[in-house]
Write a structure and sequence with these properties.
Helices cover about 0% and strands about 40% of the residues. A hairpin with a 5-residue loop joins strand 6 and strand 7. The protein is rod-shaped. By secondary structure, the protein is mostly beta strands. The chain has no helices and 9 strands.
């Protein structure tokens, strides 16, 4: 008699980010679609329980950045102006792709510093 036993994966692990904080820098004159940084989270579960996807869930209300859902790479999405904001503080969520209520996730803070460029001419005031 042959007995085959299949062990199924239970989605018992949430993705874990490889850093506690991700930081990047970009110049204010960076073109749309410029890569800023890549976040990474790992999940030891099997198949869809361990496949990780990423979303920006906070700090991007003005839509200056977007994240590639499958890779965690963060890009410039709109014009950035140092004189308006010198840094952006985003929250990125990593989720596994398990079905429905079994899905697990975690979050990490992402800080993007904006470097100034010489984009404003001097203005003289009358004395």
């Amino acid at each position: 008699v042959t007995l085959n036993i299949s062990v199924l994966d239970l989605n018992d692990n949430a993705p874990v980010f490889t850093r506690v904080l991700f930081e990047g820098t970009v110049y204010e004159n960076a073109a749309v679609n410029t890569s800023v940084l890549t976040v990474e989270a790992l999940d030891p579960d099997y198949k869809e329980n361990g496949t990780v996807v990423y979303d920006i869930i906070s700090g991007n209300s003005d839509g200056k950045f977007f994240i590639r859902h499958t890779t965690g790479e963060v890009f410039v999405a709109d014009d950035i102006d140092y004189e308006t904001a010198q840094k952006y503080m985003l929250v990125v969520q990593a989720s596994d792709t398990a079905n429905g209520s079994l899905r697990r996730s975690s979050t990490v803070n992402v800080v993007i510093y904006i470097n100034d460029t010489n984009d404003n001419s001097p203005v003289f005031s009358s004395a």
